[in-house]
Specification:
By secondary structure, the chain is an all-alpha fold. It is built from seven helices and no strands. Helix 4 packs parallel to helix 6. It starts with 15 loop residues before the first helix and ends in a 21-residue tail after the last helix.
Amino acid sequence: MGLELLRADCSRCVGLCCAGPAFAASADFAIDKPAGQPCPNLRPDFRCGIHDRLRERGFPGCTAYDCFGAGQRVTATFAGKDWRDPNVAPRMFAAYGVARDLHELLWYLTEAAELNPSDEVDRALAETGRLLDNGASAAEAAAHRDSVRTLLRRTSETVRNPAGPDHTGADLIGRRLRGADLSRASLRGAYLIQADLRDAVLHRADLIGADLRGADLSGADLSTAIFVTRPQIAAANGDADTLLPPAVERPAHWA
């Protein structure tokens, strides 16, 4: 499966991300929304009523969210039924949560297969597909995620050899890293909120799980960074000189 196939298609979804997950009033969301209740901006046709004004209305978290294509998959699975039926809602929301996690794993594993092909990665891809096809439980998906996490770490170590700086899980909030050479660095799970990464070089840097909310990526080179996702980049700020991996689009709000 190519990375280009793991893309959300809201026209084929029943607004699952706008109804299932909870969010709290914060810099990312203007209001509190309990899990299982639709956002008040969701229209009857499952489209967002303020889609073109989300950031100015206080919902930048929505513009950064990505289901990796899980929404349309679950919608198709329920064949004409949707969460507005109280008998369907619990099962549909549960299925969406599992599918979203597994689709994100597919994103990482597909990239791992390109970076360092192996039978082990192929088996992990096949098992992820099997779990999706069979409607895996949350517990089954969590156990699989743990095994994939180990595999992705080994892939990262191979690709980044010789390894650069180790900032795994580091608190780099607001850190001044302008022009820093972070080539082959591990930034796995690092907190880079509001960090100044202007003109930084992230050649083969591992960004899996890194929190880039509000980080300034202007002029930064992430063209060969690994395990980067669209939500991460959409949560950051950049400009026309920011270089991104081929599979990650330049966010519209950067313009």
